[in-house]
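Exam revision sheet. Question 4 asks you to relate a sequence to its structure. Input first:
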Amino acid sequence: MIAAFSSGFFTSFALILAIGAQNAFVLRQGIIRSHVFWVCLVCAVSDAILIAAGIAGFGKIVAMAPSLPTIMRIGGGAFLVVYGAMRFWAAYQGGHEMKTDGKQTSLRNTLMICLALTWLNPHVYLDTLGLIGAISTQFIGPARLTFGIGAVAASGVFFFSLGYGARFLAPIMKTKRTWQILDFGIGLVMWVLAFGLLRGI
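Answer key, structure tokens:
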């Protein structure tokens, strides 16, 4: 059981470690200390649902709806283009250095963006439904459940560590220039991911 849990934990952790659209958003929210708990919770719960679905066999759904992956790529790519443009515009405008303690985006709007970055991102389906689901097949019975628990635990540990650990970057995020660099970097990540998604259509 320990081997199954460890395998699930480290597999999941390795897959979500790379900076992507969702992680960049969590990082930014953590730096400005805006709705961090809820953002981390939504990401962790979303991953838990997707991991459970992957272990249960999402491949059967794709087999019944072959066009689903293409639809997801178009929707996710379009959203990443728009959100990336928003971050480029924010970098151009600057002035975010004063927003770490001021009025923040509403919880509703923040969670809507978070949900979109999570559920409209085809890569998250490939990782959770595809790869984790495929790897889980090497375990049988209770061991497979333990593998899933380990994968879900890794997701929770990662997102809450990223969200709350990001606040330690706050001291160096006090200047306008630093925020412009961060926003530009996030925008670039969004557009690179969008290009990769739309190119494959």
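Marking note for examiners. Residues 11 and 151 are 7 Å apart (CA to CA).
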